[in-house]
Amino acid sequence: xxxxxxxxxIRQHAEIQYKEELDRxxxxxxxxxxxxxRLSPWAVSTYIMGGRxxxxxxxxxxxxxxxxxxxxxxxxxxxxxALLLLGVPGTAKTWLAEHLAAAISGDSTLVVQGTAGTAEExxxxxxxxxxxxxxxxxxxxxxxxxxMTAMQTGKLARLEEFTRIPLDVQDALISMLSEKTxxxxxxxxxxxxxxxxxxIATANDRDRGVNELSSALKRRFNTVVLPTPATLEDEVAxxxxxxxxxxxxxxxxCAPPAAAEIERVVxxxxxxxxxxxxxxxxxxxxxxxxxxTAEAISVxxxxxxLAGHFGDGQLRAADLGAxxxxxxxxxPVQDKIVYNEYVETVLKDREEDGxxxxxxxxxxxxx
Length: 367
Known about the structure:
globular; Rossmann fold; single chain; 5-stranded parallel β-sheet; alpha/beta; 11 strands; 17 helices
């Protein structure tokens, strides 16, 4: 792939986007590494959490939060147990899984996207029917799944939205996780996993219609629950970093948003999510949506697009209004009540504290 093509890609894989950081860590990493790991657990943690190396090279933080949770996740992947990242939407489960795979295996692309229609072939293997009909069953006719490829190469496989996968398909993993083998009964053979193979699954614990893992499968996973950002400052830092990165990737003709604008959006999200204002004085109703950090990032990016293409290139309250309405009002009846009450009882009282513009913008949508 040419350099021109790579730079035109909207979102590069983590191992490409952060190649310099991964290479620099690999060059100085002299700590013990599990078999087939590109970096030691210490270096993986440094890559995820960020920090300054002895030579002054800066590793950017990929995750802002509890370092111990990240260490537990990494330590799990060095054992024979798989890792389940659990949390509400927008807690960086997919983002963390991708960067763990990039740092450990150097390849984050072995992914199964879980849906209600995910078939067993997506986890085990399928068949090339042209070869099957012409030459009969053979290893050459097998179409490996991402999980099977990870077993054969000693890498990490990722299972996104794991609990959306039907229960009988989920259970296809049991032999892979317990015996580290994948039997192919049609050929009377089996494939054994190489060292380094493991699975990172993500699941949304707020999803409706979720397929709970069986007890047998739960025993083969260590679960790490990713919380929402603990403080306003942490969440502002996350949103700032991600909007800057996405804005550059999408070539948005807008200056990076001011910290004050990001802080106001994050404050609104945190208050509606928690059901109480930041100062703890007033209770507010929470909408039906999750008001996640990921949605806050989306609101800011949408505002940047409006400001860049239809404004003067500076993000303002008027550019954020429609995005905030869309994030808050998911249920057109109940959430509209929540929205109206929040605007008139919370934002109105902040007019004199520099919130007049955003109050007036959001008030336009009050009906």
